[in-house]
Write a structure and sequence with these properties.
Layout: E1 10-13, H1 21-25, E2 35-41, H2 48-51, E3 60-64, H3 72-86, E4 90-97, H4 99-111, E5 123-124, E6 134-138, E7 152-154, E8 159-163, E9 171-174, H5 184-202, H6 209-227, H7 232-251, H8 257-269, H9 273-281, H10 289-301, H11 316-327, H12 330-337, H13 341-344, H14 347-356
Parallel strand pairs: 1-9, 2-3, 2-4, 4-6, 5-8, 6-9
Antiparallel strand pairs: 7-8
Length: about 350
């Protein structure tokens, strides 16, 4: 069986394209009381593009806190705030920020039309009703969250996405101007997410020509940006496309060793996705030799220091939990190592890798 891939149906790419948001929202507003919900990373609160958002009198702007990555309790709280605001059904949800904010927007759009808690829908194809029309506007490039059919959430018992055909955005606006001002390290870590997506796709057993085409281009864009001498403004355009292509690549294949181990690290130690992947990838020369070498050259060229000694002094129960979470991600290991992955990636092997970090 081949995957019947749902992709984002409408996309605008270009500098200043965020100013087209009013035109995009206009057909969604049925009357003067129609309510658009803007979920904006609070880091952007004072920025001019936020002051210029096309918010009408009945719209709601919520500045979201992504100091920690999205949790199901936070999604439920935001959903309640939206419902309590006017009692009217919203006509659109717009998410503006990095991967965390885009995931919050996707999840809130779904939870406005589906009963219960967002934790009830963590898994595959558990959502019964289409969400509210939702628009994604990334302000960091690399996660591919703008194209994916998931919203990654930490729930009461696990970190797992709401994967469904209703999850992808109805519209995305890729405006490279919005990447300006991101801290240098954060920009690098998030961009490396797309480099690693491509690496895991290309060297995985699920690889196919569709996925390969996107992955190769995504990686070559990252290489040009971080190994070449590209003007910053052009680099932002390139990174935005690298992110989209990296996302398209894994959408039709799967991630691998790095993401599986990173999920364990982030579940137990709360390490964020971008930096977590970088910490793990640095130790995976055995699995992705050439790409890990390239990655290290990029680290050096940009004077990026990775934290070390994360697992020093970690208690045995925490180590076991980390290994359990990582090894539970069966499809990732199947892609990375093939059907007999369990023989290759034993709990002891995973422990050995974690101890190096
Ligand atoms: N849905 C998916 O397919 C998918 C894929 C990969 C990762 N993710 C999720 O994405 C998240 C990681 O996203 P991310 O790496 O984009 O970072 P992020 O959204 O977690 O943001 C990281 C930090 O950068 C700040 N920030 C964002 N944009 C900025 C800007 N332009 N200028 C200054 N600061 C800015 C944020 O406030 C935050 O402090 C994780 O929660 C991860 O689980 C989702
Ligand atoms: Fe990722």
């Amino acid at each position: 069986m081949y995957r019947n891939l749902r992709v984002v149906p409408q996309l605008i790419f270009g500098r200043g394209s965020v100013r087209q948001l009013a035109d995009i929202l206009a057909p969604q507003r049925q009357d003067d009381l129609s309510q658009v919900v803007f979920l904006v990373d609070r880091v952007h609160r004072e920025k001019s593009f936020v002051r210029e958002l096309p918010a009408a009198a009945h719209d709601l702007i919520l500045f979201v806190n992504v100091d920690t990555e999205p949790k199901t309790v936070y999604v439920d709280e935001l959903t309640r705030q939206v419902k309590d605001f006017s009692g009217r059904r919203s006509c659109a949800v717009v998410g503006i920020g990095g991967g965390s904010t885009m995931d919050l927007a996707k999840a809130v759009a779904l939870m406005l039309t589906n009963p219960g808690s967002s934790s009830d829908y963590q898994g595959w194809d558990l959502v019964n009703h289409p969400g509210i029309y939702h628009v994604g506007i990334p302000t960091l490039a690399g996660t591919g969250a703008e194209v994916s059919r998931t919203t990654v959430l930490t729930g009461p018992t696990r970190k797992l996405g709401i994967n469904s055909d209703y999850t992808p955005f109805d519209q995305i606006i890729l405006d490279p101007d919005l990447l300006a001002g991101a801290p240098k390290d954060q920009r690098f870590f998030t961009a490396m997410d797309s480099f690693i997506h491509a690496s895991e796709a290309l060297l995985g057993t699920f690889i196919n020509q569709f996925s390969r085409a996107f992955a190769e281009k995504s990686q070559s864009l990252c290489r040009e940006v971080f190994l070449g001498d590209i003007d910053a403004a052009v680099a932002d355009e390139m990174l935005m496309i690298a992110s989209y292509f990296g996302g398209m690549s894994i959408a039709y294949s799967q991630v691998g060793v790095c993401h599986a181990l990173c999920y364990g690290l982030s579940y137990v130690l709360g390490v964020r996705h971008g930096i977590g992947n970088c910490i793990v990838f640095n130790h995976l020369e055995e699995y992705y030799p050439e790409d890990v070498r390239t990655f290290r050259t990029m680290l050096e060229k940009h004077h990026i220091e990775l934290p070390r000694g994360l697992t020093v002094g970690l208690g045995e129960p925490q180590m076991q939990e980390m290994i359990r979470v990582a090894l539970s991600l069966e499809p990732l290991w199947q892609n990375a190592l093939g059907p007999d992955w369990k023989a290759q990636m034993t709990p002891e092997r995973a422990r050995g890798l974690y101890l190096r970090m």
